[in-house]
Structure formats: structure tokens, C-alpha cells
Amino acid sequence: MIKVLYLLLAIIIIAQFIRPARIADPVDPATDLIAVTKPDAEIAQMLRTSCYDCHSHQPNYPWYFAITPVNFWLNDHIQDGLKHFDASTWASVKGFERDHQAKDAMEEMDKKEMPIPDFFYLGRHADAKLSDAQYGKLYSYFESLRDGSWDIEKARRKAAGEIK
Ligand code: HEC
């Protein structure tokens, strides 16, 4: 029995050396959403505390990111979030893709579905949580980023039979 416990302990300790790499790229003012769109201080703050942990290359990692396997789980969410909406490279993607992301973000704000409930917020949920008024402000902000180019591209894709 004791041997089994030692073995388990050894596995847990060894596992701590296997970690996903931390993402920490410098902010590129030419492509970063906040740097390019220059929203007011309140919106910038909301984006940083409530969205940038999963949708930018500067996540603010919680201390428990040091623990394997929690870190793999958190890392998956960041990678997944980045695939859908990457605020750090915002200005480098095609115009209609930006418009598409703004449209999706408006939907998420409308349904209050972001930030996803996550272990990222254990112990610090209070500052990432958005009030109804804040959701309203972020909704208007994303709306102000729209230029309708996605609707045109979507219609083109539909007409070309590329999407249903
Ligand atoms: C804890 C991680 C996390 C945080 C914080 C977070 N998101 Fe997400 N987000 C995700 C993940 C994971 C996905 C992809 C899966 C999904 O759509 O649920 C996603 C998807 C999205 C999408 C794409 C939706 C679609 O229809 O494809 C948008 C837009 C988005 N998030 C906006 C935001 C905004 C705006 C905030 C801040 C208010 C935010 N997210 C905060 C994890 C997060």
C-alpha cells in the first residue's frame, strides 16, 4: 500500500515538469485590438480583464497555472479562444474577418456568454465578471467596429455555394 502511495507521489511530482508553454508575446501596437481601435479607458480595462486572458497573446495567468494538469486545461481554453478571436492580431486579418469577429462578439455580449465560466477565474472571478451595463457598453463598442463587410462576403459565399 505504502509503495503505491510513493509511486503516485512520484508520478505527481514528475508530472510537474511537463507543462504547456506560457504565451507572452509583446503587444504589437499595429495589430492589437485596444491599441488600434483606442476605446475609452473603461472599455479597454474590461477587454483586458475579461477577454484578454483567452483572446490575446498576453494572458494574465493565475498562480495555479503552475500546477499540472490544471495548466493543460487552461491552455486548451486559451488556444481555443484564440482560434475564434485573436485580439493581439486583430488588425492583421482580412477586413471581413474582423467584421465577422465583431458580429460574433456582439452576439456573445447580447447573450452574456463570454467570458466562459472557467477555472481561470478561481479566486478572482469578481473583476472579470461583467454587469448588465458593462455588457451593454461592450456590445456598443463591438457594434462600432462593424463595417458590414462580413455580410457582403457571406452573401458572396452563399451565392457561390461555399456555405449554406
Ligand atoms: C476563460 C477563457 C475566455 C474568456 C475570458 C473569454 N473567452 Fe471568448 N471564447 C473562449 C473560448 C474557449 C471560445 C471558443 C468556444 C466557444 O465559442 O465557446 C471563445 C469564443 C469567442 C468568440 C467566437 C464566438 C463564435 O461564435 O465563434 C468571441 C467573439 C468571443 N469569444 C469573445 C469574447 C469576449 C468579447 C470576451 C470578453 C468579454 C471573451 N470572449 C472572454 C474563451 C474565453
List strands and helices in order, with pairings.
Blueprint: H1 2-15, H2 33-37, H3 41-50, H4 52-55, H5 70-84, H6 95-111, H7 125-128, H8 132-145, H9 149-159
The structure holds heme C (HEC).
Q: How many distinct beta strands? A: 0
Count of separate structural domains: 1
Number of helices: 9
For the termini, the CA-CA separation is 60 Å
The multimeric state of the shown protein is single chain
Return the string of H and E elements.
HHHHHHHHH
Q: Could you estimate the helical fraction of the residues in percent?
A: 55-70%
β-strand amount: under 5%
Radius of gyration: 19 Å
**Mean pLDDT level:** 91
Q: What can you tell me about this protein's structure?
A:
The structure is a single chain. This protein is mostly helical. The chain has one domain. It has nine helices and no strands. The protein has helices spanning 2-15, 33-37, 41-50, 52-55, 70-84, 95-111, 125-128, 132-145, 149-159. Heme C is lined by residues 50-51, 53-55, 77, 80-81, 84-85, 101, 104-105, 108, 114-116, 118, 120, 138.
Which structural traits does this protein have?
164 residues; mainly alpha; 9 helices; 0% strand; elongated; binds heme C
